[in-house]
Design goal:
It contains 7 helices and 10 strands. It is α/β, with parallel strands linked by helices. A hairpin with a 2-residue loop joins strand 7 and strand 8. Bound molecules: manganese (II) ion.
């Protein structure tokens, strides 16, 4: 393969793998594997912008076993020369050593500000933006992010810990943005403010609503979700686009 052809940047989030019934999950996973395979030929970078897994936790010597195929596909993508960044969402913020060492993912801090192709990108899952969701903002999120919580969780037997994690994750269900009116507007405003401060592109996720808002040659993208819209972002030559995955062939790509 000609590695010089790898000149695109992809953005994808909120697959919430494991959150739905088994047959829906199988189709969703299949599409994701097809997508990873398809972008292998031209993806310089893939940004996973959070909540790819509905629940992820690494024990010292154990990981959740349901994600093998996806991890294998990501590892193949990395081996092909694509840099894959894994920004943790609120469902999979506990990614660590294993994903880096064994799968080859890059795990940056959230938010990540990075210059690529002479453009400044701001990337965040975005779960800390909406302060009106005060219970999450002031209580749940700091607790999830705490090293103590992580440590205590590690002390559980993995079968118990992963089961608990899945139960809590599933109880939270797939994010219902209608509970928070004007959430899309709040995310837009947040992004537009950042664009004014000198960034070129702001990439957010979490609210499961695909969006692309351009401001001159700057733009805000929300990568949407990978269970209903199968939306993703792609950047090439100064153009940021929002797309919808239709199938495993390039000409079928929406
Ligand atoms: Mn989220």
């Amino acid at each position: 393969m000609d590695v010089n052809r790898k000149n695109k940047i992809y953005f994808l989030s909120d697959a919430h793998l494991g959150a739905q019934d088994p047959s829906t999950e199988a189709k969703k996973e299949q599409k994701l594997l097809q997508f990873f395979k398809l972008i292998q030929e031209d993806a310089d970078i893939l940004f996973l912008v959070g909540d790819i897994f509905d629940f992820w936790f690494e024990y010292f010597r154990t990981i959740p076993n349901r994600y093998f195929k996806v991890l294998k596909a990501l590892s193949t993508l990395v081996e092909s020369g694509t840099r894959v960044y894994f920004i943790g969402g609120n469902h999979d913020l506990w990614g660590g050593d294993y994903l880096q060492r064994e799968v080859g993912l890059i795990i940056p801090e959230d938010p990540l500000i990075i210059e690529l192709y002479n453009k400044k990108f701001y990337l965040s899952h975005g779960d800390g933006i909406l302060k009106s969701n005060w219970h999450y903002y002031y209580f749940t999120r700091p607790m999830l992010k705490s090293k103590i919580t992580r440590f205590v969780f590690k002390m559980l037997h993995p079968d118990l810990g992963i089961l608990l994690g899945q139960l809590v994750s599933n109880r939270r269900r797939l994010y219902n943005h209608k509970r928070y009116p004007d959430v899309e507007k709040a995310y837009q405003d947040f992004a537009l403010n950042l664009l004014k401060s000198g960034l070129d592109y702001v990439i957010l996720a979490h609210i499961h609503q695909p969006a692309l808002l351009t401001e001159g040659n700057k733009a805000y993208l929300n990568s949407g979700n990978w269970y209903r819209h199968f939306s993703y972002g792609v950047y090439e030559n100064g153009q940021l686009e929002l797309k919808y995955f239709k199938g495993p062939h390039r000409n079928a790509e929406g």
